[in-house]
Amino acid sequence: MAGYYPPVGFHFKVEFTGLDKNDNDTRFQAVTGLAVEYETETVKEGGENRFEHTLPVRTKYPDLTLKRGMLHLDSKIFEWCMKAFQDREFKLSDVIITLLNEEHEPIRTWNIVGAWPKKWTITELNAENSSVVVESLDLRYQYFTIS
C-alpha cells in the first residue's frame, strides 16, 4: 500500500432516509458519537480470590451528535425534530453517514438504524461575538453497521 494516506475527516455527507431531500440537509460541520462498546458483567468465582471474570453482556451506542450552521425553517430535518418535540410524533429515520475521498466517492459508510431526535440546541446568542449560530442535534438510535 505504498503511497496510501489515511483519509481526511472533513469530507463527508449525512443523509436521512424517509425525509424529503434537501441539499442543505446533507451538510454538517461535525459528526460525533460513531462508537460502540460492550457493557460488561463481573462474575466472582468461588474459591478464586486473585481476580474477577469480566464478561461481555451487550453492545451499547452513544448518542450521535450532528452540528451545522443554523438553517432557515425550510430544513426537513428541523421539521422532523419539531414534530417530535412539539407534536410528539416520533418517526424513526435511518441516517447514512458517508466518508468521501477527493473524487467524492464513498470510502466508508455508517448506516445508523432507527434514529430519533433526543435533543436540539443552538449556540449562545451573544452580542459581543461575531460567530455563526450553530445548531446541534443529538440522535438516539438502535445500532449501526459499517460498509
TrEMBL record:
This is Phage tail protein. It comes from the Bacteria. It comes from Chitinophaga lutea. Pfam families: Phage_T4_gp19. One of its GO terms (molecular function) is structural molecule activity.
